[in-house]
Design a protein that fits this description.
It is a single chain. This protein is of the alpha/beta class. It folds into two domains: 266 residues, Alkaline Phosphatase, subunit A (3-Layer(aba) Sandwich), CATH 3.40.720; 105 residues, 2-Layer Sandwich (Alpha-Beta Plaits). The N and C termini lie close together (9 Å). The chain is globular. Helix 5 crosses helix 7.
């Protein structure tokens, strides 16, 4: 069968609104369409693999014989959160959405958090991560109070200046928050958001996510139990709370993640290398930066050309996304979109149109079957169509 699978998540690269997008306020969202109009968008390798065979876009041509097989992935889970998207890719469909807080967190949560950490909380509103430190950074530095904010996602974010609250202390109070936010208030992620410098401040790369543990087994657990390597690159380990992960490599940015992935190609492992490249979402999607997003995809595409050449005969490559984040809409939040799926390798059939798949979880089921393991997840394998 296959010795290694490289699963690359281009964080937030949606390819058009899902049928229920209106329920989420995401009518008309199409991340790929938005960035493909930018003069910064150059993606010959993704095009050759078949990205535009999944969904045709004006001015961008599909190819007659794409190198990969391809599908449009529908999300079956309720929500459009990073955690929910990755869990579903790994075979776990979430039927109950994580709680969100459009008016901030309730008094009882904030009171308990303040009492436990011995510090006051300021803000407690949905906010842009870059704007919140502009508006509350000076007050935080003067008073020592920590900045708590949220977004349209299920997140409890804590921002603090590294000179006022050292990184390890910030991580410690995030762990306290994670312990408080359970039951009805079990948010998907508590996120440490350190910043530094003088006004206007800048966020550092010491972000850390404290996620819920998946409520049942994912493909990662199944692979690990069967003695396959499960290598996490980027925030994958955080998203799965370390469950089912045998090795983890944190990254500073996309370039770092791509470099580590290339190093994994030269490593003699047997199993899965699961990679998240977060800059597309964090730096460009959420900041409505169409050209920046397009340029980031172009850089990835150039790197991808080298990776395709470096793949071994027993390797398989899967490229997908976890949700959308259309940078051309007024919203700065994630968007409820279909995602692309490209599967490529020496032993993988090319040019197989797998049409619309009912769930991201089909990816996890397929990966398990690639390793000759029965799928005990929520997905349906498409391996027989491509192998």
């Amino acid at each position: 069968m296959i010795k290694r699978v490289f699963l690359l998540v281009i964080d937030s690269l949606g390819i058009g609104e899902l049928p229920d997008a209106a329920k989420y306020g995401d009518q008309g969202s199409n991340t790929l369409k938005a960035i493909s109009k930018s003069p910064k968008f150059v993606a010959p390798n993704l095009t050759k693999l078949g990205l535009f065979n999944i969904v045709g876009l004006e001015g961008v041509r599909s190819v007659k014989k794409p190198m990969a097989s391809y599908a449009r992935m529908a999300q079956k889970s309720v929500g459009k959160d990073t955690t929910i998207g990755h869990w579903e890719i790994a075979g776990l469909v979430t039927s109950t959405p994580f709680p969100t807080y459009p008016n901030g967190f309730p008094k009882e949560i904030i009171d308990e958090f303040q009492n436990r950490i011995g510090k006051k909380v300021i803000c407690n509103l949905p906010y842009s991560g870059t704007e919140v430190i502009k508006d509350y950074g000076k007050e935080h530095i003067k008073s020592g109070a920590v900045i708590v904010y949220t977004s349209a996602d299920s997140v409890f974010q804590i921002a603090a200046h590294q000179d006022i609250l050292p990184i390890n202390e910030l991580y410690s109070i995030c762990e306290i928050a994670r312990g408080i936010l359970t039951g009805d208030h079990a948010v998907g992620r508590v996120i440490a958001r350190p910043f530094a410098g003088k006004y206007p401040y800048y966020r550092t790369d010491n972000r850390k996510d404290f996620s819920l543990a998946p409520p049942k087994e994912t493909m990662l657990d199944i692979l690990q139990k069967n003695n396959f390597d499960t290598i996490a690159v980027g925030k994958i380990s955080d998203i799965f709370a370390g469950k089912g992960i045998s090795q983890s490599y944190a990254t500073k940015d996309n370039d770092d993640g791509m470099e580590i992935t290339l190093k994994m190609l030269d490593t003699n492992f047997k199993g899965l290398c699961f990679v998240n490249l977060v800059d597309f979402d964090m730096l460009y999607g959420h900041r409505n930066d169409v050209d920046g997003y397009a340029q980031a995809v172009s850089v990835f595409d150039s790197w991808l050309g080298g990776m395709l050449k470096a793949l071994k005969k027993d390797d398989a490559l899967i490229i997908t996304a976890d949700h959308g984040c259309d940078p051309s809409t007024p919203s700065t939040d994630h968007s409820r979109e279909y995602t692309p799926m490209l599967i490529y390798g020496n032993k993988i059939k090319a040019n197989q149109n797998l049409n619309i798949r009912a769930s991201f979880a089909d990816i996890g089921a397929t990966i398990l079957e690639l390793f000759n393991l029965p799928s005990q997840t929520d997905g349906t394998s498409f391996l027989q169509e491509v192998f």
